[in-house]
Specification:
Helix content is 33%, strand content 19%. It is α/β, with parallel strands linked by helices and 534 residues long.
């Protein structure tokens, strides 16, 4: 048999966790046609690539990407492929681009922009009416890498009842259940929630559980940004487990962490007191995380939800009202009934302004630093930044501890997700978007010695493929999709930093998607064989 491409003399790490071995891999028609073990093993091929001194792995799976919000952006694709990611899972945190009501696109755009400042959305609103329409839109695009999608509870709720903060009527609930079933039947992975974001935060536990039962009936899964990642972390994780068990549905905990010094140690308690017993009872539970001690989300997320509920522009108007600003200040200065990221970062010195859509002078500075530079009180400076940006912007929050992070990394059901929200190429973001996977190898394998390279690769490929039912992905074996990564293991380095987040990783030599090289020599090649996985 003559294959299209033979990658020979590689050290093969197959994604299962088994030890590496020398061998060759043959690719034909986008799939792995043959795998031959042994030093010097060869295959008849139209093209041969000598990988001596390099490591061949399955393409990495970004288990939590937000890549759907910038699906048509080559900058976003570069951030993934340059660290070895060939499949991105998206639609998490309750934010997906369907369903959307065609008559409420301005409202929907506000909703998405509160999470991703520069979303790329279909020009025709009909393409977002439901999952089948959206899938056809995606399948008409030429994508550099694969994507799999959850359906967001925030989008679903907005579609059914707008920004209404009341509980859904029986009719609204019926509509959400029906639409969710349709989405999963058309290829959605299941339901995601973002229970700190408007309008998802208005959904109570019983609402989520009813939707999860509908999702489970269609074979779906549940991914959740839980209701609180700080003072009430244990209660929030208990809620997630209760809902998943009540619906008998696989559970994915998004970007698992605890924010705030007062909450350090809680993730270790969650693992042993909540997750382990749930797994023992039969719950399929997976957590995704990124190998950094700071998170990133919208700058406005620390504002009390009642001021955010009508979208960023309405928030900006509240910030012009002295009485509202005084009320916001009082709420943000102390522990309160919502997840206050500024408070959990130790105040404004723990918040870095990452990217802003209009007013850029604070970018790259901590809010406290910007306040000192401009002669303002830190809270006033924060309000000023949001006001000048119409309520929008992204912030990096320094609020985690290393002991918790390492415990999360070691958890047997833990995988990697970039949580890769991004600004524009000329704006600074979070290094996780460009470097999470190579940083995981550097940090967990080379520095902390938590894993062998084979185990780390398994957690970035075979394990997430199995948990997310991504058939054909995650393992090097005959018949599997030829999504592959060639690494120079001696020269791997994650270059992205908080000060310069948009740098590609060193040591990622070539990345194959469906048998074609999609990334090489530090750049996209123009190959576009990625597809929607459904």
């Amino acid at each position: 048999m003559v294959v299209d491409i033979c990658i020979q003399n590689a050290s093969i790490i197959d994604g299962t966790g088994r030890p590496a071995y020398k061998g060759s891999v043959g690719i034909s028609k986008g799939r792995i046609a043959q795998v031959r073990a042994g030093q010097g093993a060869t295959l008849q091929a139209r093209e041969t690539l000598d990988a001596k001194g390099l490591t061949l792995c399955p393409g990495f799976i970004d288990a939590h990407s937000h890549g759907d919000l910038m699906l048509e952006s080559d900058f976003s694709s570069l951030s993934k492929l340059s660290q070895g990611v060939t499949t991105q899972v998206a639609g998490q945190c309750g934010a997906s681009l369907c369903p959307a009501s065609q008559g409420e696109m301005e409202e929907f755009t506000r909703f998405v922009s509160a999470i991703a400042p520069y979303p790329t959305m279909p020009k025709d609103p009909a393409s977002m009416a439901g999952f089948e329409a959206y899938a056809r839109y995606i399948e008409g695009l030429a994508l550099p890498l694969n994507v799999a999608l959850f359906t967001g509870h925030g989008a679903l709720r907005l579609w059914a009842m707008g920004y209404d903060d009341s509980q859904p009527t029986a009719r609204q609930m019926e509509r959400m259940e029906g639409m969710l079933r349709e989405c999963i039947q058309a290829g959605s992975l299941g339901l995601s929630t973002g229970l700190v974001y408007v309008p998802g935060c208005y959904g109570r536990e019983n609402e989520i559980t009813v939707l999860l039962k509908a999702a489970a009936a269609e074979g779906g899964m549940y991914a959740t940004h839980v209701r609180d990642e700080s003072d009430f972390l244990l209660e929030a994780e208990q809620e997630a487990v209760r809902s998943a068990e009540a619906a008998d549905i696989p559970l994915f905990i998004s970007h698992f962490k605890a924010a705030g010094r007062q909450n350090w140690g809680k993730p270790r308690r969650v693992l042993t007191e909540i997750f382990d017993p749930a797994v023992a009872r039969g719950l399929q539970l997976t957590v995704d995380h990124y190998p950094y001690l700071a998170g990133m989300t919208s700058l406005n997320v620390s504002i009390p939800p009642r001021f955010r509920k009508d979208g960023p522009q309405a928030l900006a108007r509240h910030l012009e009202n002295p009485a509202d600003v005084a009320e916001i200040r009082r709420a943000m200065e102390k522990p309160c009934g919502y997840d206050n990221y500024v408070y959990n970062s130790g105040g404004f010195d723990g918040v870095l302004v990452s990217s802003c859509p209009i007013f850029h002078k604070a970018e790259g500075m901590r809010v406290a630093e910007y306040a000192e530079k401009t002669g303002q009180d830190p809270f006033d400076a924060y309000v000023d930044i949001l006001r000048r940006n119409n309520g929008l912007g992204l912030g990096v929050y320094f609020h985690m501890c290393e002991e918790d992070l390492l415990a999360i990394a070691k958890y047997p059901h833990s995988v990697i997700g970039t949580d890769g929200l991004m600004g524009r190429p000329d704006e600074n973001g979070h290094p996780r978007a460009f470097a999470s996977f190579i940083r995981a190898v550097e940090y967990y394998v080379l520095e902390k010695k938590l894993f062998s390279l084979e185990e780390m690769i398994h957690r970035m490929s075979g394990l997430p493929a199995d948990r997310l039912s991504l058939y054909g992905k995650g393992v090097i074996a005959a018949g599997m999709d030829a999504d592959l990564v060639l690494l120079d293991g001696n020269n791997l380095r994650a270059r992205a930093t908080y000060a310069n987040s948009n740098q590609t990783c060193l040591g990622v030599k070539k990345v194959f998607v469906a048998g074609e090289v999609a990334y090489a020599d530090g750049a996209l090649t123009g190959s576009r064989l990625g597809r929607l996985l459904r």
